[in-house]
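So, could you explain this one?
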Amino acid sequence: MKLGRINTLIIDRDTEPGLFLLDEEGNDVLLPGKYIPSNFEIGDEIDVFIYLDNNERLIATTLKPKIELHDFGWLQVNQVTKHGAFLDLGIEKDLFVPFNEQARPMQKGKHYLVFMYLDDKTDRLVGSSKINKFLSNDELTVELYEEVDIIISHMTDMGINVIINQIHRGLAYENEVFKELRVGDQVKGIIKKIRDDNKIDVSLRQTGYRAIEPNAERILLELGDNDGYLGLTDKSNSEIIRDVLEMSKKSFKRAIGTLYKARKIEIKEDGIYLIESNNPEN
């Protein structure tokens, strides 16, 4: 039975306090009555989150937490006490962040990027906003051009620092970001470059020849949504292209070149036109 994680357990018995659930090793845990599903049978499997209640006993809930053990997440502070901050985890019990695990003093009502881990001394689930100590690029688990999950960490003069697959640090350069992002946002990215020192550059859009098809698909979707016409050409202002399509002018020119060669569009002085046979509404 994994503390701080969603477990798939077996319904063993129905009692007055609630259902008792079993793991594969025969360990049981209580699912309180208020979380009992409307329809169930003894022997059914059920997904529950396991945590410690206020009496330090294992307890189960069908509520889905905002993050699980060893995950990063963007959580709001519900209260601050003399012991530390308590953040909304999405279940009955808040996530405790002691003062010595706060990168800066937390304030009630504000959101912070935190990592949830198991405290060795107390065996409790706790959080930390000192996120760098939970990231490592010593042994990389990603490859060049691989699609990865990104969490926006913080902004710097060089660009946007990101968390890659909940494990590694990365950087997306500001001039390659074509939409507004905030700390805590979760997006997809592509490993653009892996440096000799294992520092990772990421792109929030695919790069090189791998970017042609997704960008071309985006243009086709825009054409389909606008009656087969888009008032952009290779002479259009790069800022306008970025606002409309969230891509650079270079990527746009390469994508329309691909679509033109594939005979999916016509390029005229006033814009690009979808060839009728390619219109999804036909």
Notes: The mean pLDDT is 91. The chain has four domains: 6-61, 72-132, 147-204, 209-278. The first strand starts at residue 6 and ends at 14. The radius of gyration is 25 Å.
